[in-house]
Amino acid sequence: MNINEILSNIKNLPTTPQILPRLLGKLRDHDASADDIVDLIKLDPPMMAQIIKISNSGYYAIPKGNTDLKRAIAHIGLGETYKIVTIIVGREIASAPIKAYNMEGNELWQTAIGAAICMEILAKHTASDPTDAYTIGIFHNLGKLVISNTAFKDYAPVFEKIENENISQAEAERAVLGFDYCEVGGILLEYWDFPTFISSPVRFQLDPMATTENRQTACMLHISLYLLSAIGLASGRDAYAFKLNEEAVTTLKLTQKDTEQMMIQVLTRFEEIKQMFS
After folding, report:
1. Whether residue 196 has pLDDT greater than 90
2. What is the reported pTM?
């Protein structure tokens, strides 16, 4: 099976998160208003209900409770609203077991949350857009889900190659399948109408210096994967065999103290989000 066959097999792909590219566009449009965001989210009643519910959680704590979407968004802010929507969509897509990668249910989603938090923290360090960064983090592992759903029967030789040749999972995928999960994830994000500044870092997450386009965000994602591996939030068979590209560290001008502080911030925020969605 080649990559074109995988992407043409629409029935086995995750449901298109149609609201996210449109919502991202609204947030980047300086002429868009809060009412525009409210009107867009109202098109998805279950999403609207979840946002209102979360706005009443202990983390946001609207005084006297709330049942109105506009009030919820006004209280938590547009940026937080987008992150909540992203997490909800990510959980819907990535909560099932990923059999080809030996990942249990919710493992992919938890790793996605961890990466999104890392990306947001790194966005502040590099003065990058935190909304874009969060989106990239949530969907960075999407290609694994797609490959597992569409090429599961062809996947056993990938692990054989890893064992026999001591190479990374992505290298083994390229050798056996002709593509890896990073490429598949990037292509699917483009298929879903996400812009290149979202899809490109996903494509180059393991080799960020190989691209000149959106290199900084690709380096941010690469470092995020390293941080997740270091604090035990990475998942999958190759989670603890991550090869850090030191040039990515240099590009972002990170010190050891920076990374240590980021690890603590990630773990703290991760627990907050788990409580929020429990």
Report:
1. yes
2. 0.88
